[in-house]
Design brief:
Three copies of one chain form a homotrimer.
Chain A lengths: L1 E4 L3 H10 L5 E6 L3 E7 L5 E8 L5 E3 L4 E6 H8 L7 E7 L4 E7 L3 E7 L17 E6 H12 L4 E6 L3 E7 L4 E7 L5 E4 L5 E6 H7 L8 E5 L6 E7 L3 E7 L7
Helix pairs in contact in A: 1-2, 3-4
Chain lengths: 249, 249, 249
């Protein structure tokens, strides 16, 4: 296995976002992509990540392998990359280590121990949503940060014309209205309004993915999970399935 | 009541400075201005603040009202304004809330609970000073930060020609001399030198007002309060009356 | 004694770097230079510092003097210099204080108490090294920061052609290779490879000197001190002699 990136930023950013939610993970590497399906330790959020072979300058995988690794250690190494570095990842199966090499005017080599991840294989749940909102990740990002002032949960409210993000505490409340326009497209199967509640703590981690893609697709339903997809065509996808906060109203 | 600001910065900065000294406050809003007179919780500093109607794009006040509010909550909301936002404040007397709306490509609405402030009305003390120093807020700001290295109180010393800021600890001492020139004007009723001591902790909060105005007027006397005025003509005034540190020399 | 600097940055940076390792120190001032030889409190590193008279705009020293001073206090004052300030140092032997004056559009005067430093005079050890590496301080700086991810000690490894910086922990390991080229010159008396271990904690303090000079000279040997020299011709030298971590391999 030998993977080369002339612009390591895509990997640095991806690992940064994923490590917000999970730490010890098992990546699957096959001839098409590096992929990851993992639950966060509290079993509230599932991460589904794919980094396609076409993101790499060189992508050479002879047989599918699993690479279990501690993301904090990997992130510490990736944080040391400079824009001029060419990053190469190889697998030393004998020593059971992942080798990361950064090459510019000096050559820096990091060997990271592979770990054991007990976790059984995760299956992506088959979810059906009555509604889909495609908008800019920046707008969603800002809205979640606005609501964070008010409360620890947020309500996503939408019908076929409007998408509203709301929060309410004992004293204060707030809402951001995002209207359907050239940047925001709402697709609804029905005509009724959908209102669903989720944890702001988790949403604040998920919106870090706005550095991966400037578009986000949100699907949700009352007392049902949220699915957020950040996709860069032919490069990567980062998706989260987030359990709902059951609402009392 | 409906107040609109196309450049919210003036309000954001004002609330930031006021909240250094007081937290639960009652603003008075009449047809000319928003105003505030408040003592800090330790009864050491009085804040006198006026934001004139001419600072606003739209200023519509039918009858005078009091708006008691928690400044930390207000500041958290104002910190979310972007330069492109138009900010509108309205009063929802029915729900007992202050509504703050930020409008750019999205519309964000925050409803902030009004609170009860027990405090009786404050009266501005009638003070007579033998001396007035007008200088740049930057110079005064720098001088206080210099003295902060040395001690926890500062002496302001002036005669009709010179203005000096001094601090002395057991080991070290420091002074900044600001001479009368085109930027600094000293007006004295007498010829004797005046020396007065004040808390650096409070002065460090007061000098935050240098972001409101690049001029400051200082009036003081031995064992007598300091009055500092930061004024932007036709826009705002922020003044503090600060109790003295009684000097032993 | 009267010393004037029109660009105080050289002094600000020097004191910043020295204070990483020592705090209460005694500078010697003679007609040629300000100098310092001091051990860090843990007796692991010796600092040898010289700031030459030619760095100063005015350098007037009538007789050699010792100036014992607390570097944290001095650093707090120097941190207050602005790029436009002219800095003047004088000695008030009567009051036993060092006077530091900063002059731009205002005049700021700090009087810093001289202290007693018990420490006996330090002698620079006479060390012989089989090897000398001259490289850019930036490359060495980066390499130490890379290794800091992995372990708390680092091995410097060199022969006449290559210079490698390595670190190994139970799980992970890393190395940076710096090849001899126009930026990096290796001078060896023998042909064998030299490998020596030092504390990363100390090296991280030493590499702060990369802001003083963009070149560093490293001399080391197995189970023997490291000597690092940061030199700016006709201006200053900052050198550290660092005790080895005795290696078990």
């Amino acid at each position: 296995m030998k993977l080369t990136l002339e612009e390591p930023k895509i990997l640095v950013d991806s690992v940064g976002v994923i490590s917000e939610l999970v730490n010890d993970v098992r990546f699957s590497v096959d001839e098409d992509k590096i992929s990851l399906i993992a639950m966060d330790p509290a079993n509230v959020a599932m991460i589904i990540f794919n980094l396609l072979s076409s993101s790499f300058t060189e992508y050479q995988v002879d047989k599918p392998v699993n690479i279990a690794i501690n993301l904090d250690s990997l992130k510490a190494i990736l944080r040391r990359t400079k824009p001029s570095d060419v990053l190469t990842i190889t697998l030393d199966e004998e020593k059971n280590k992942l080798q990361i090499q950064l090459k510019s005017d000096s050559t820096r080599t990091f060997n990271l121990a592979l770990i054991d991840v007990e976790e059984k294989e995760q299956k992506i749940p088959d979810l059906q949503f009555p509604l889909k909102v495609e908008t800019t990740s920046y707008k969603f990002d800002e809205a979640i940060q606005d609501m964070d002032i008010i409360a620890d949960s947020v309500a996503l409210v939408a019908d076929k014309d409007n998408f509203t993000i709301e929060a309410t505490s004992n004293l204060n409340d707030a809402k951001t209205e995002i209207f359907g326009d050239e940047e925001t497209k709402i697709t609804a199967t029905g005509t009724e309004q959908i209102k669903a509640k989720y944890s702001i703590e988790y949403l604040k981690k998920i919106i870090k993915a706005s550095k991966l893609s400037h578009k986000v697709t949100l699907q949700f339903n009352k007392d049902y999970p949220l699915r957020a997809d950040y996709i860069v065509k032919d490069k990567l996808s980062f998706s989260v399935v987030l359990a709902p906060r059951v609402s009392n109203d």
